[in-house]
Amino acid sequence: MMRVIRVNDYQEISEKAFEEIKKTVTEKPDAVLGLATGSSPVGLYQLMIKDHQENGTSYREVRTFNLDEYVGLPKDHPESYYSFMHRNLFDGLDIKEENIHIPSSEGDLQEKCEQYNDALEETVIDVQILGIGSNGHIGFNEPGTSFDSVTHIVDLKPSTIRDNARFFDDDISKVPTKAITMGISNVMAAKKIILLANGENKANAIQACVMGPVTENVPASILQEHPDVIMIVDRTAASSLYKEKR
Ligand code: GLP
After folding, report:
1. pLDDT of 32-52, one tens digit each?
2. Rg, Å, the chain Cα set
3. Residue 65, Cβ neighbours under 10 Å: how many?
4. pTM for the whole structure
């Protein structure tokens, strides 16, 4: 079942998502969290750090699995998702490094996909945090990806490269063209999914995800078939809901 929670702004998205995460780790200190990069979850991560520092909520027994990683950036590049996650979340928590899982894109890529997938198959993610691409992608599962996909290597779509250029001095030529990502079936295996979206440029993707047909052309539309999804969207991202597609 998909529940859409419409809030006013980014701060409220972050607060609502934080309530869910706090509830999860309080009830289950060894919870498994599926985590996302991008700007959508940064406010949530800041609230998690603040709460850890002020209230002592512990992540010592928590395990995390990230959705994806660029191919072609060394781990210590500031825009690798490894660096992003440490800078924006892990360095501010008491999580153990060995409990953090981020797909590695160094070495034999096929082998790295299989290893990550094996680890995912041995685990049940309690809560998966998701953003959404302006073309409806989740993780780096671009339009056209099979709903049965598992961890795999993808060629990023030109629109995704353009969207992500803002993290690379607005220079398209600096954006990696490939990534390793959890597949859609890995994402769907999570017990609960929380998707965060803000801003006008997400409005069409949110409309297609919530109201459109379930189609591989809109990867996020498969979430309509998941038993427990919360979509937390601000006014602008929700602006095309319940209206004709613009
Ligand atoms: C990237 C990530 C996705 C993320 C999307 C949206 O492509 N691989 O996991 O959801 O961007 O990013 P943002 O939250 O910055 O809009």
Report:
1. 999 999 999 999 999 999 999
2. 17
3. 22
4. 0.96
